[in-house]
Structure formats: structure tokens, C-alpha cells
Here is the input.
Amino acid sequence: MTILDVLGYFLWITSLKPNISYNHSLLLHKINFRHLLKPSALTTDWNLFLCVIFFLKKGIECQRTCVYTPQQNGVVECKHRHILNTTWALLFQSHLPLEFWEQCVLTATYIINRLPTPLLKTKSPFEMLYNRPPSLSHLKTFGRLCYATVVSPKQKFDSRARQCIFIGYPLNKKAYKLFDIDEDIFFTSRDVIFHESVFPFCQPSQT
Here is the structure.
């Protein structure tokens, strides 16, 4: 699910699993409580009666577009195209398999929110929302090889580092989201050493 602030162009992305019910209050929590904003209107192509009733009770006007008519919500459709183009660029550069698409979309959104745009007079959506320019010093190349420090090894001679792939930035944490190549799991860590010139999933060309 994509949430777009049409004034500042800030993006929120939430993954919705099929056939699983979710709490609509999570949507308001991301916007209302975290950013001290209250949406006045919501435009969507959902045809869910319970969804409409929920937002009306919160004092939010719910505007519904016709299904399969993207021209009625052109701003969001253009932003969807921007997200997909950035996502494909990250996947192409990192050579990651498609099962990492969700992490790639989240990272693309994170980057887009911090990029200046002429639509906002060279300001970024992040700056429009928080009234301060974003920090870019922590940004790393998506899909690169990195090593995360093992803070508490079980034994003295255990490895002190985990071979990983950098796949994004976790929500509400000053850390990096990583994928452990050996254990096949996702985790977050702050103590990371990056190898900016190595893509683990990039196979050398055969001659």
C-alpha cells in the first residue's frame, strides 16, 4: 500500500499480505502520531465499506476513484512509476534475485524521500515534512557486501563477523538492515563494515 502526501510528496510504504486482515489504525499511526499530522482526505481505489466507515469516524473524508481508472489519481500513478523505476535500477545494479523485491521497494522509497526535486523548489520530501534537510552520510550502496560484528559470540573461537548483504534501512532505528548469506535470515545491526566494490550476487562473466 502506497501513501502519498500530495503537498510535500512524502511517501509511506506498507506491505499488505494477501488474505490477512490488518488494522486501519496502523495507517493513521504512521502519519498522525509520528509526524503530528492529521489527514483531511484520503483518495483510494479500495471498495471496502469497513475501510470507509473507519476513516469517516476519524473525521477523514474518504474519496474513492473508479477501479482501473488510474487517470483519476494521476499524481499517485506517477509516483508509482518513479518507485518502480528506482526499484528496477537497484535490482539491476545489485543483481539480487526477485525475492528481494519488497526490501528493494522499501529502500527505493527511503531514497526518494530524501532526494531534492524541482517540484518542491529543489527541496526533498523529507525536508518538507520535518522542516530540516535530511542527513545523507549514512546512505550505502544497495546490495553490497558487508560484515556485521558479532557482539556476543557464543564461544571464544567463534567468528567475530557475519557475511551479509546490505538491503536497506529499518524503521525507527539508527542501524542497517542486512541479510545473512550463510544463515539466510534478515537482521539489523549498527556495527557494519562495508565493501563498496563487491556485489555477492553478481556472477563473474564467463570467457
